[in-house]
Amino acid sequence: MHFFNVIKWIAWKDLLSELRNRENISSMFFFALIVILIFSFSFSLDPKSTHELMPGIIWIAFGFTGIIGLGKSFLAEVHNDCMEYFQIVPAPKGAIYLGKFSGNVLFMLIVEIILFPLFILFFNLDVLEKIPMILLIFVAATIGLSALGTLFSALTVQIRAREVMFPILLLPMAVPIFIGAVEATRGVFSGDPLSMYVDWIKLLVVFDGIFMVVSFWVFEFILDY
Amino acid sequence: MVISRLIARLQRYEGWFGVAAGLLIMVGLYMGLVTSSPDYYQGEVVRIMYIHVPAAQSAMFAYTVLFGGSIWYLWKRDPIVDNMSHAAAGIGVFFTLIALITGSIWAKPTWNTWWTWDPRLISFTIMLLILVGYLMLRTFLEDKEKEATYGAILAIVGFIDLPIIHFSVEWWRTLHQPLSISTRGVSIASDMLIPLLLMSIGFYLLFTYMLMVRTQMLYLERLLEAKRGRMLSKVHV
């Protein structure tokens, strides 16, 4: 099969099955909502501290949501005995990775885009002209999180302590994404000029590139077993 | 298998590595703690450096061995090299902990705090987390070959991540406030350099010795498991 067709069909399959049962997206969405609510209780946010804390809260919410969603990414394949099909299908293994990865990026972005208006509402943000920049940061950070998350999901899906191991492996390695995303978001919301935080966006893009290449290369070895 | 033969040959002399490490560390400790002069700025506190710096170096060396061994394993599928990587990770945790704890003890009188969010401290702590994650992942996998492969994948991704973590943390600190602690450009006095060098070499040798012993232990454990499995199958069949 053609490389890009494999990516397209796997992402399409994930999207279709998700649209039919809405299991992942709804659990991700409600989980993130709860995280936001708990933060607003625990910090008793006033307008002044909101600006200081908000970028961190956004990315903790999205990071934990990612753990819920990305961790389950390969679960359906295991439950339906599809891992074996992935092993024998005459398609490049890297394309299978990129297909699952694209599906994950899509789900996380959908959840983030649904949640973002709620952030604006809850935290009284003034964002209208900042939306393109925010979207760019969301996309860049989501790609990095999903690149690592898809790899570790495949790595942990077949072991006993999957729910524990997935965040233990993902979160330490995702530290640069969280730093970059939080700092860039803070830059946008405090109205800094682009030159002040553009380095963080660059870091995110570089990180995305490195981890997509490495994961693409090592994914083949995971499917071998 | 070049590497297996090299490991086997080194293992023949493993006792000598232990003896040499012990001697060097004893001499280095004596020189460092007794004959070397206290630091101009830090006074006697500086002596913890003779443990702290070699431990940190050995920890990073352990991670490099783990990385190299992992790539080699994915390439050649040599189980002895996997044993070595597995051993290196465990010893790496040990040296990383020593480096973090001694660093913390040194920081209390010097910076007046046990912990500060310095790039090196953060990246070292994350290295510890990655190593522990690696060891945990391995304990949860039953199939030996799968264990080795998944571990190798994790180690490679983690090793590539470390410099990125270090630089992102460094930027994160420096963009917002000037570094409160910067490395002083003062060159080190020779009566401090010699014990430090002795301790460094001693710790590297100690690491090699521990690596050899632990690799052999893991090999024997695996052998025992295989034999036990064979015996069980004989009983049941």
UniProtKB/TrEMBL annotation, chain A:
<keyword id="KW-0813">Transport</keyword>
<comment type="function">
    <text>Required for the export of heme to the periplasm for the biogenesis of c-type cytochromes.</text>
</comment>
<feature type="transmembrane region" description="Helical">
    <location>
        <begin position="105"/>
        <end position="125"/>
    </location>
</feature>
<protein>
    <recommendedName>
        <fullName>Heme exporter protein B</fullName>
    </recommendedName>
</protein>
<feature type="transmembrane region" description="Helical">
    <location>
        <begin position="57"/>
        <end position="75"/>
    </location>
</feature>
<dbReference type="GO" id="GO:0017004">
    <property type="term" value="P:cytochrome complex assembly"/>
</dbReference>
<keyword id="KW-0472">Membrane</keyword>
<feature type="transmembrane region" description="Helical">
    <location>
        <begin position="131"/>
        <end position="152"/>
    </location>
</feature>
<dbReference type="Pfam" id="PF03379">
    <property type="entry name" value="CcmB"/>
</dbReference>
<keyword id="KW-0997">Cell inner membrane</keyword>
<dbReference type="GO" id="GO:0015232">
    <property type="term" value="F:heme transmembrane transporter activity"/>
</dbReference>
<feature type="transmembrane region" description="Helical">
    <location>
        <begin position="25"/>
        <end position="45"/>
    </location>
</feature>
<dbReference type="GO" id="GO:1903607">
    <property type="term" value="P:cytochrome c biosynthetic process"/>
</dbReference>
<keyword id="KW-0201">Cytochrome c-type biogenesis</keyword>
<dbReference type="InterPro" id="IPR026031">
    <property type="entry name" value="Cyt_c_CcmB_bac"/>
</dbReference>
<keyword id="KW-1003">Cell membrane</keyword>
<comment type="similarity">
    <text>Belongs to the CcmB/CycW/HelB family.</text>
</comment>
<feature type="transmembrane region" description="Helical">
    <location>
        <begin position="201"/>
        <end position="223"/>
    </location>
</feature>
<keyword id="KW-0812">Transmembrane</keyword>
<keyword id="KW-1133">Transmembrane helix</keyword>
<dbReference type="GO" id="GO:0005886">
    <property type="term" value="C:plasma membrane"/>
</dbReference>
<feature type="transmembrane region" description="Helical">
    <location>
        <begin position="164"/>
        <end position="181"/>
    </location>
</feature>
TrEMBL record, chain B:
<comment type="function">
    <text>Required for the export of heme to the periplasm for the biogenesis of c-type cytochromes.</text>
</comment>
<dbReference type="GO" id="GO:0005886">
    <property type="term" value="C:plasma membrane"/>
</dbReference>
<feature type="transmembrane region" description="Helical">
    <location>
        <begin position="192"/>
        <end position="212"/>
    </location>
</feature>
<feature type="transmembrane region" description="Helical">
    <location>
        <begin position="55"/>
        <end position="75"/>
    </location>
</feature>
<dbReference type="InterPro" id="IPR003557">
    <property type="entry name" value="Cyt_c_biogenesis_CcmC"/>
</dbReference>
<dbReference type="GO" id="GO:0020037">
    <property type="term" value="F:heme binding"/>
</dbReference>
<feature type="transmembrane region" description="Helical">
    <location>
        <begin position="119"/>
        <end position="137"/>
    </location>
</feature>
<keyword id="KW-1133">Transmembrane helix</keyword>
<feature type="transmembrane region" description="Helical">
    <location>
        <begin position="87"/>
        <end position="107"/>
    </location>
</feature>
<dbReference type="GO" id="GO:0015232">
    <property type="term" value="F:heme transmembrane transporter activity"/>
</dbReference>
<dbReference type="Pfam" id="PF01578">
    <property type="entry name" value="Cytochrom_C_asm"/>
</dbReference>
<dbReference type="InterPro" id="IPR002541">
    <property type="entry name" value="Cyt_c_assembly"/>
</dbReference>
<feature type="transmembrane region" description="Helical">
    <location>
        <begin position="149"/>
        <end position="172"/>
    </location>
</feature>
<feature type="domain" description="Cytochrome c assembly protein">
    <location>
        <begin position="19"/>
        <end position="176"/>
    </location>
</feature>
<keyword id="KW-0812">Transmembrane</keyword>
<keyword id="KW-0201">Cytochrome c-type biogenesis</keyword>
<keyword id="KW-0472">Membrane</keyword>
<dbReference type="GO" id="GO:0017004">
    <property type="term" value="P:cytochrome complex assembly"/>
</dbReference>
<protein>
    <recommendedName>
        <fullName>Heme exporter protein C</fullName>
    </recommendedName>
</protein>
<dbReference type="InterPro" id="IPR045062">
    <property type="entry name" value="Cyt_c_biogenesis_CcsA/CcmC"/>
</dbReference>
<comment type="similarity">
    <text>Belongs to the CcmC/CycZ/HelC family.</text>
</comment>
<feature type="transmembrane region" description="Helical">
    <location>
        <begin position="15"/>
        <end position="35"/>
    </location>
</feature>
